[in-house]
Amino acid sequence: MNRKKETIVFIVIILVLGFWRFGGGQQMYFSPEKVMYACEEGLHYGPSEKVLLKKQLGNRAIVIGKLDDGISVVHSKRSLLGMWKLGEGSVTGYWKITDDVEAAYSSRFRLIYGAVKNKDIKTIETAAAKVKDGELEILEKANCNVDNDGFFYANTGDYYTEDDGVYFRIAYIYGFDENGTLIYSYSY
């Protein structure tokens, strides 16, 4: 190899290593699950026993993992060369389940999800809502089965908006036992 080719190769190597070290490359991972485990380690909780749900829409993904007394919710996005890094614009991390049922709605991922602490609850009825100017509008109702890990989820329609005056939340949660008897209710 002549001197010019060697110089170009070394410059490329220096640029790649420099980017990796100082440009945030050390915070990129091969999968959204790896991002979740790194986030858990960085925030000093976990690691998750298993991945309960992974949902990818475009270049973004949400991964939900099972913990002893809660769930781990981490958003990630695709970066350079197909690698993944922590996504912005959302609260990620440990979500301790303190009530019988906890639920959330992610309009970006078109997903209602949550966890159940009360083992008698077998099905959940809930609704995603949009709040604008203090007015609550129910967007979609969902009926979810609770799995053995106490986790439930339902896919929803696309209601995502970047309007600053709008936010999304769960409107209500009803929990039913195996006989269909209402044993838990909560309205926000």
Describe the structure.
The protein is α+β, with helices and mostly antiparallel strands. It is 16% helix and 46% strand. The protein has 2 helices and 12 strands; from the N terminus they run ααββββββββββββ. The chain has helices at 3-22, 32-42; strands at 50-57, 60-67, 70-78, 84-86, 93-96, 101-106, 111-116, 123-132, 135-145, 151-155, 166-176, 182-187. The strands form 3 sheets. Strands 1, 2, 3, 4 and 5 form a 5-stranded antiparallel sheet that branches. The protein has a 4-stranded antiparallel sheet with strand order 9-8-11-12, with no helix packed on it. β3 (70-78) and β4 form a beta hairpin. The relative contact order is 0.13. The model has no long low-confidence stretch (mean pLDDT 87).
Residues in helices, as a percent range: 10-25%
Gap from first CA to last CA: 70 Å
Run of helices and strands? HHEEEEEEEEEEEE
Q: What is the structural class?
A: alpha+beta
Low-confidence sequence ranges: none
